[in-house]
């Protein structure tokens, strides 16, 4: 099946960074390990930990967790019945929320330590997000190790470098020409041009998707990839506006997703609209398959498509 002309135009528009009326800035997100130091005296501020249905979040402590006389954990989790797994080990706590939890919900988590030293316990606020979850949180009650500071500094340096590169790309793209000349000027066009692939029949759609997926195309330029979705909002549903997107490989690697392009809210009027997700990726990084997740802000509605690959 040939790639539609309109689909190519949409992808080209996104690859050259043209601004759109419904462009949504991506939320700041660091998918690496997060370190947290607990004060000896309570301050009243409980650190937030982002969790997501079906995704594992691990808290690793530098002290043993308290257990009762029968050896059972004494971890207190609000709505514990809404979790698929609450697994407390000697110094770790693994949480896997279920779909019963809704986006935006805030739950309290309290743990206590075995040795009774200050602080004797710690409290956290679990914040439910449709797809984004913190995978590993290292919690330090004593002074942190030099290695943890070095790792944090390295991750912060990499994040600053990434932001700097994205800013330079944006400045170059917005100040350059449009059309194919813009792709060449921005370094997104090599001798192979922009390659396209039809994925409509290849992707797997989650049964709980909020939108109907009609067509799926993927594109690859010199250092960018894009997924063009032709979507329809079921009749009777609320208008859909994409708040963010996530492209994750089979090994859990996340691509650096740029602002999602959407011309406007997708109304429940039977008319298709395009959503284009663009990311920075080399040819090696773009080796799939990937899972694409879209979400709205504050509603809990999501779209999940697996089997995404690039030319």
Automatic annotation (TrEMBL):
<dbReference type="InterPro" id="IPR011754">
    <property type="entry name" value="Mxa_paralog_2268"/>
</dbReference>
<keyword id="KW-0175">Coiled coil</keyword>
<dbReference type="Pfam" id="PF09544">
    <property type="entry name" value="DUF2381"/>
</dbReference>
<feature type="signal peptide">
    <location>
        <begin position="1"/>
        <end position="22"/>
    </location>
</feature>
<keyword id="KW-0732">Signal</keyword>
<feature type="coiled-coil region">
    <location>
        <begin position="139"/>
        <end position="173"/>
    </location>
</feature>
<protein>
    <submittedName>
        <fullName>DUF2381 family protein</fullName>
    </submittedName>
</protein>
């Amino acid at each position: 099946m040939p790639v539609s002309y309109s689909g190519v135009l949409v992808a080209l528009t996104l690859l050259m960074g043209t601004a759109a009326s419904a462009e949504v800035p991506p939320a700041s997100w660091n998918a690496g390990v997060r370190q947290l130091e607990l004060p000896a005296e309570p301050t009243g501020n409980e650190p937030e930990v982002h969790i997501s249905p079906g995704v594992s979040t691990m808290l690793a402590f530098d002290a043993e967790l308290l257990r009762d006389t029968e050896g059972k954990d004494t971890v207190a989790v609000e709505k514990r019945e809404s979790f698929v797994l609450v697994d407390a080990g000697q110094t770790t706590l693994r949480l896997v929320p279920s779909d019963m939890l809704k986006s935006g919900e805030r739950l309290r988590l309290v743990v206590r330590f075995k040795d009774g030293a200050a602080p004797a316990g710690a409290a956290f606020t679990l914040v439910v997000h449709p797809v984004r979850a913190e995978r590993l949180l290292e919690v330090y009650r004593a002074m942190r190790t030099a290695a943890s500071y070095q790792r944090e500094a390295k991750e912060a340096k990499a994040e600053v470098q990434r932001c700097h590169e994205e800013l330079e790309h944006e400045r170059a793209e917005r100040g350059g020409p449009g059309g194919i000349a813009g792709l060449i000027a921005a370094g997104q066009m090599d001798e192979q041009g922009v390659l396209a692939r039809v994925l409509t029949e290849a992707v797997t759609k989650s049964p709980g998707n909020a939108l109907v997926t009609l067509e799926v195309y993927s594109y690859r330029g010199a250092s960018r990839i894009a997924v063009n979705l032709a979507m329809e909002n079921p009749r009777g549903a609320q208008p859909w506006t994409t708040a963010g997107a996530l492209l994750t490989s089979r090994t859990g690697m996340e691509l650096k997703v740029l602002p999602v392009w959407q011309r406007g809210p997708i109304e429940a009027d039977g008319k298709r609209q395009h959503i284009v997700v663009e990311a920075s990726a080399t040819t090696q990084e773009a080796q799939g398959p990937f899972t694409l997740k879209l979400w709205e802000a504050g509603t809990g509605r999501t779209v999940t498509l697996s089997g995404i690959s690039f030319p």
